[in-house]
Amino acid sequence: RAIAEGRLVGQRCPVDGRVYFPSRGSCPQHGVPVDPEPIELEDRGTVVTFSINRVPSENIKLDLPYAAIQVRLDGADTSFFHVLGECPIEDVHMGMRVQAHWKPRDEWTESVGNIIYFKPLDEPDADFETYKEHI
Q1: Peptide bond preceding 104: is omega within 30 degrees of 0, i.e. cis?
Q2: Which residues pair with 69 in a beta bridge?
Q3: In contact, 67 and 89? CB cutoff 8 Å
Q4: pLDDT at 60
Q5: Ramachandran category for residue 95: left, alpha or beta (phi over 0 → left; psi -120 to 50 → alpha)
Q6: DSSP secondary structure code for residue 41 in this structure
Q7: Bridge partner list, 11
Q8: Cα–Cα distance list, 135 to 15, 51, 56, 72, 109 (Å)
Q9: pLDDT at position 20, please?
Q10: Dihedral sign for Cα atoms in the order 81, 87, 89, 90
Q11: Measured torsion, CA atoms of residues 102, 22, 6, 130, in degrees rounded to the nearest 10
């Protein structure tokens, strides 16, 4: 429900403190319920890995080719799949800093699909040590 309000929230494992996004009901590492207190996350993150797609899809309205990315939001300890926009394919790379590009607010639902794509930020790349365990 938070994403319908433009908020990205994760949940913390009570055993090791890892923050999961998207939220899960339980920690997959320890098999315990996650802390019910939501962890507010920014809509910025780091590309931890990517692939270049050259095959069209009805569900992804980006020009070909486009980059499918695994992005780890700042403050989260897991990554999730999305797409990269506003970036030439030859410039896509691991460690790239990105930010969500949202649909118009009147089109928001309770889905991560409210984010159309992530786009590059004018920031230095993340240090490899900060995302290497997510590759």
Answers
A1: no
A2: 50, 82
A3: yes
A4: 78
A5: left
A6: E
A7: 20
A8: 23, 12, 25, 10, 30
A9: 96
A10: negative
A11: -70
| Residue owning tokens 């992804």 | 60
Q: Please state the φ and ψ torsions of residue 41, each to the nearest 5 degrees.
A: -120, 155
Q: State pLDDT tens for residues 79-126.
A: 999 999 999 999 999 999 999 999 999 999 999 899 999 999 999 999
Alpha-carbon separation of residue 9 from 44, 68, 72, 102 (angstroms): 13, 22, 13, 16
Whether the bond into 56 is cis, omega within 30 of 0: no
Q: What is the pTM of this model?
A: 0.92
Closest CA to 53 of 79, 21, 85: 85
Read off the DSSP letter of residue 103.
P
* Alpha helices for the chain (secondary structure H): none
Supply the pLDDT for residue 59. 82
User: To the nearest whole percent, how much of the chain has pLDDT over 90?
Assistant: 88
Helix, strand, coil fractions of the chain, as percent rounded to 5: 15, 35, 50
